[in-house]
Design a protein that fits this description.
about 0% strand
Length: about 160
């Protein structure tokens, strides 16, 4: 049941007519604690239509930042639910550097839990959101720019190897 739902969702999101919508949804979902990468979707939309470079980067940044805000809210609610907070070096580090640590929200595997911990510690929301957006924007800009420099022949060869 779940496998067919996931297959259907991926098929819908792959439709070219919903390029920016797909980028937004994939970026939003990938910023939550669901393990999904959004860079391939951003790259695919831009590769299919280079004129959409900036709009795809901005839409992905907005979606990914909103996903980070969801993580922040989950952490904030978890703090409300649990009376004892576990202290670790992550907590000390976040308390020491505050909202600026959200610049690292773009890091794979670490960024999403970092947003959750920011909410747990009740770091100031708007500065945290701003730093998340800056970090995520820079990630999409740099990753997509780098991927666009890879020659098309390399992508075709990778496609042949995968099929």
């Amino acid at each position: 049941m779940i496998e067919s739902a996931i297959s259907w969702l991926l098929l819908v999101l792959a439709a070219p007519a919903v390029g920016l919508t797909s980028v937004f949804v994939i970026a939003l979902v990938s910023a939550t604690l669901v393990p999904l990468g959004s860079e391939p979707a951003v790259f695919a939309v831009i590769k299919a239509n280079p004129a959409m470079f900036w709009s795809a980067i901005f839409v992905a940044t907005i979606g990914n930042t909103l996903g980070g805000a969801i993580d922040y809210y989950i952490g904030w609610q978890a703090k409300q639910s649990f009376s004892k907070e576990r202290k670790s070096r992550w907590f000390h580090w976040l308390e020491r550097y505050g909202a600026k640590t959200m610049l690292l929200a773009w890091l794979p595997g670490v960024g999403d839990p970092l947003c959750t911990l920011g909410g747990w510690l009740k770091l100031p929301f708007w500065p945290s959101l701003g730093y998340m957006a800056i970090g995520k924007f820079l990630r999409y800009l740099s990753m997509t720019s780098l991927l666009l420099y890879v020659p098309d022949g390399v992508w075709r060869r990778i496609g042949q190897l995968m099929s």
